Every structure is written in structure tokens, then in C-alpha cells.
From TrEMBL:
CC terms in the record's Gene Ontology section: cytosol
Family to which this protein belongs: Belongs to the chorismate synthase family.
EC number annotated for this UniProt entry: 4.2.3.5
Molecular functions (GO terms): chorismate synthase activity; FMN binding
Residues noted as binding NADP(+) in the record, renumbered to the chain: 47, 53
HAMAP family in the record: Chorismate_synth
Designated name of the protein: Chorismate synthase
Keyword Lyase: yes
CDD domains reported in the protein's UniProt record: Chorismate_synthase
Gene3D superfamilies listed in its UniProt record: Chorismate synthase AroC
GO BP term, example: aromatic amino acid family biosynthetic process
Amino acid sequence: MSANWGNNIELSLFGESHGKAIGIVIGNLPAGVALDMDEIRWQMKRRAPGQNKMSTPRVEKDEVQIMSGLLDGVTTGAPLCAMIENSDQHSKDYSLLKECMRPGHSDYPAYVKYHGYNDVRGGGHFSGRLTAPIVFAGSVAKQILRQKGIIVGAHIQSIKDVYDDSFGVDITCEDLQQLTKQQYPTLNSDVFLKMQNVIEDARMKQDSVGGTIECAIINVPAGLGNPFFDSIESHLSPLLFSIPAVKSVSFGMGEKMSELYGHEANDCYYYEGEKVKTKTNHNGGITGGISNGMPIVFKVAIKPTPSISQVQSTINVKTKENTKLEITGRHDPCIVPRAVVVVESMAAIGILDMMKDI
Ligand SMILES: Cc1cc2nc3c(=O)[nH]c(=O)nc-3n(C[C@H](O)[C@H](O)[C@H](O)COP(=O)(O)O)c2cc1C
Ligand SMILES: C=C(O[C@@H]1CC(C(=O)O)=C[C@@H](OP(=O)(O)O)[C@H]1O)C(=O)O
């Protein structure tokens, strides 16, 4: 399995959901960055499991232990290694799942690829748990970007068919910073209760729901990115698709742009003093693969959690028979609320990586 990534910043992700620990090694970070560990703790808490009924009941503190690369709270330039211990594993829940493949999870393709040796417990290395170290790396990236005036923030755009508002063209740094201070951010404060009800309803029916997350990155200067293979879209998408359960990524108005006329889709330029702006931001701040100075805006869609306890049809790879499966164990009835900070983190890592002068 490969879990290495990076052009400028380098990431190496390690661990399994029911192993001793999970973690990340971040290479090529600048030396001399003072990390705000309280803020990192808050970002980790936004994602951590076991905090309420919307989440898996598995309780993990997600305390980060820094193993290298930090001295007196300041990065030394050596690889920054962060480790998070696993403490609340119920591995018995997975005994049957070595043979009976969960529909929608990684079990079957992983069984084929790793000849049955892959660790299925808690999803092993495929688990959403591996997003905890990503949030650590993302929090570090966000702090470095903030020193350059670049702010990343996201909100829950929808849960099933309950929708929040969308980012407007005039979104500010303060708006985004406010979102990152909320555990489950929405733009319209009334909508989250409805979303919570939809999640609870699914949970009571032994089912799950998905949704979308909208993310913005403000103050990326015009001129970042390249046409073709290293466009901003091409650079961020692999990171965003690496988040387990993400099934689509779209920039600006995405698919909806295909329904517009040219005069509706184009973002018309104007000067505000010396600054070049566009009246609308249908292209999500990127044209020709390159930032145009407007907020970079994208959406990710997250599927319903695959592990549900309703009876489902599947196969037993040991007996080679069709069978029925009733999954026991602890699962998120909806992944979206805990994934907001994961999406912000991937965005921050991707943009930082593209900035050659870090
Ligand atoms: C934060 C987070 C939490 C998740 N929690 C669960 C869970 O409790 N149960 C589950 O079956 N899948 C969960 N997933 C999704 C699975 O890990 C994912 O669907 C699986 O690895 C297969 O990958 P794919 O959906 O990208 O194909 C979670 C994902 C994330 C990002
Ligand atoms: C532990 C976390 O989420 C886990 C992600 C996950 C999966 O299949 O992705 C399955 C569940 O694992 P377990 O059966 O061990 O409880 C979730 O709890 C986490 O996000 O920290």
C-alpha cells in the first residue's frame, strides 16, 4: 500500500484503525514556524469520534504526540512526525467481516488485492480514522497559510436533501474564520437542526445518509497554478478524493455550469481600486487552471456511511456463497459533520504544496 504524497510538502500516512497508533510524517515544512497547539487540539476535536449521536460511539481522544520536528513549540525543519494512539477498539465486531464482504466498504477489493491479509478491523488502513492525522497536517498547513493571509473554511452544504445556503461572491476572511470555530458549521444557523433530524431518523432506521461540504480558500493571489497537469483543480482533487467516502469534487458551479449560457457562466471583471475582481464567481476562483484572485470555491459529495446494520445481501469469500449480512459494531450514521475539517485540511495542504516559496 502506498500512502505517500507530495511535490513540495511531503506526507507519509501510517497506521490502522485497530492498530496501536496512527500518524503522519510531514516533510519539507519550513523551519521556524511556531505552532499553536491549542488550535490544533480544537481542529482535532472537530473531527474526533464519539462526541454525540451523530457520530460513531467509538470514543477516541485524538491527542497528538509530536515525535520529531518540533522544539520549544517551533518547527525545526526536520520531518514533523505526529502520532495518535488508538484506545477504544472493539475488534470482535469484525470477526465475521474477514469473510463476509461489506457492501460499499473497501473489504472486497482489498481482499482481492492483498490476498486476504489486509486488516479489516475498523477498516484497517482504509478507515476514516486515518483522517485524524490528516487534520493534524491540515491544521499546520492552515497556520502557515494564515501567516500569508490565506484562510480556509468550509460548511456543511447539505445532508441528504436538506440544504444550507452557498458561499456568496463577497465572502470574507472573518466569515471563514468564524466557520472554523464551529464544530458543525452552516451558513444558515437554522438549518443544522433539520440536518440533525435527518441523521437521527436514518440512525433509528439502522440506515445512514450522505451529503455535501462546500469549502472556500480566500486570498490566494492571482497566478497560482498551471494549465493542464498542475492546475489548481488537478492538484486539489487527488487529495480530496483520498478522503474515504468522497464520491465527487466540483469547482465553482461544477456540473451546473453545463446548463448555463455563456453570458450567464462568465465571471465579468472589474477594478475595485487597484484590485481586479469578478462580479460573480461561477468558476470558483480558477480559470485556465490558475487562480484569478477570487475565492477558490469547491464542493465535495460524501456518500452515506457504508456500514449499516440493516440486513444486506453479500458474498462469503471463504465459502464462496451468496449470503446475508447484518453488521454489528459502531458506525457513523453520517460522515459529513466530522468530515468538514478534513476537507478544509486537504485544501490547506494542497494549496500550501503549490506555493513554491514556502
Ligand atoms: C471521518 C470519516 C468517518 C467514517 N466513518 C465510517 C464508519 O463509521 N463506518 C463506515 O463503514 N465507513 C466510514 N467511513 C467511510 C469508509 O471509510 C469508506 O467508505 C471506505 O473506506 C470505502 O472507501 P470509499 O467509500 O472511498 O470507496 C468514514 C469516513 C470518514 C472520512
Ligand atoms: C474511529 C473512527 O471512525 C471509524 C471509521 C470507520 C471506517 O470504516 O471508516 C469505522 C468505525 O470504526 P470502529 O468499528 O473501530 O468503531 C468508525 O468508528 C474515527 O474516525 O476516528
